[in-house]
Design a protein that fits this description.
Order of helices and strands: EEEHEEEHHHEHEHEEH
Shape: globular
Number of domains: 1
Number of helices: 7
CATH architecture: 3-Layer(aba) Sandwich
Distance between the termini: 49 Å
Helix content: 25-40%
CATH class: Alpha Beta
Structural class: alpha/beta
CATH superfamily: P-loop containing nucleotide triphosphate hydrolases
Oligomer: single chain
Length: 259
């Protein structure tokens, strides 16, 4: 069996505006991701990061090229691909445990056991019967993460799930995501604008250029876990990723000014 969880080869992804103009969103995206890797993707707004996640998830199939998940082509959404959006998207009329179970019945002892395991994994013990209106933003995102893990997906895709949270809650959820990854070794891809977050979590950081989105550089992060954001080795890697990101922004400004 291939060591790659994902083999992505996307020559082009185009969008068409309401006025009929064709815009290239992604160009020549080639990326191989090993099983159990934690990949973070950074880049300027509009570079196609979220579009790339949706293509991997099978939510967007109007593109050239292929995405192979464990050697099987992705042609539609499925339970083998977990997706966590920027907003938690919980059902307001369901409790925490029922939101996690989603379309499965808690009357099934196997489902009930799995939901209980996930509640413990994301540290929501005592809130099983709570409704979304009774939860903080960070707690709601933990419910969303647990729901995405319910069916043991082969890959977990996270589209800036911590972006709207305060710094303390964001830091806490980074630890939760890392704990889940270390326990399950689920292949994970997280889109973020936060360079500290990208370096703190990833085995590799993918830096993307502006539209059309291309891969500018892939930075291996060979730091042991748990990582200290104030350590010299962390700051050195952060500086490297930041320099690539700043160069992307410089090129974007030059391109937009016509220089």
């Amino acid at each position: 069996m291939s060591v790659y969880a994902l083999d992505i080869d996307l020559p082009h992804k185009w969008f068409q505006t309401p006025q009929g103009t064709r815009i290239e969103a992604l160009h020549n995206i080639q990326l191989k991701i090993k099983q159990g890797e934690f990949i973070t993707v950074i880049g300027p707004s509009g570079c196609g990061k979220s579009t790339l996640l949706k293509i991997i998830a099978g939510l967007d199939t109007d593109h050239q090229g292929t995405v192979l998940l464990e050697q099987t082509q992705v042609v539609q959404p499925g339970i083998d691909k977990g997706f966590i959006f920027q907003e938690h998207r919980l059902f307001p009329w369901l409790t925490v445990e029922k939101n996690i179970a989603a379309d499965l019945s808690l009357k099934d002892p196997d489902v009930r056991r799995r939901v209980a395991e996930l509640i413990e994994l994301v540290k929501l013990q005592g809130f099983e019967k709570a409704y979304p209106r009774e939860l903080s933003g960070g707690m709601s995102q933990r419910v969303a993460i647990a729901r995405a893990l319910l069916r043991n997906p082969k890959v977990l895709l996270l589209d800036e799930p911590f972006g709207a949270l305060d710094a303390f809650t964001r830091s806490h959820l980074q630890e939760v995501a890392l704990n889940i990854w270390e326990q399950n070794r689920t292949t994970m891809i997280l889109v973020t604008h936060d360079i500290d977050e990208a370096v703190f979590l990833a085995t590799r950081v993918v830096v993307m250029n502006a539209r059309p989105g291309t891969i500018r550089k892939i930075v291996p992060v060979d730091l042991p876990y748990p990582r200290k954001k104030a350590s010299s080795s962390f700051l050195e890697l952060r500086k490297l990723v930041l320099s690539e990101f700043e160069r992307v922004e410089e090129l974007e400004l030059i391109d937009s000014s016509g220089i």
